[in-house]
Amino acid sequence: MDAASGQGNGTRSEPPSSQFQKIWRANLVCPAEGPPIRGGAVLTRGARVEAVGPAEEIYPAGRPVSDIDFGAAVLIPGLVNAHTHIELSGLEIDPSTMGEWIVRLVREVREWPPHLFLSSSRLGVSASLEAGVTCVGDISASGQSRRILSDMGMRGVIFREVLGLVPGDADSIVADSIFEKRATQPGEGGGGALRTGMSPHAPYTASLALYRAVIGAAGAKGWPTATHLAESPEESRFLDDGDGPFAEVHKALDSPAEGFEPPGLSPVRYLSEGEVLGGIDLAVHCNQTGEEEWALLSRAGAAVCLCPRSAAFFGHPFADAAGMRRAGVRLCIGTDSRASSPSLSVLEEAAALWEADPELTAEALLEICTANGAKALGFAGEGAGVITPGGTADLAVVEPPPGEPAELDRIFRPGASVRTTISGGIIRYERGG
Question: What DSSP string runs through 315-329?
Answer without folding.
Answer: TPPPP-HHHHHHTT-
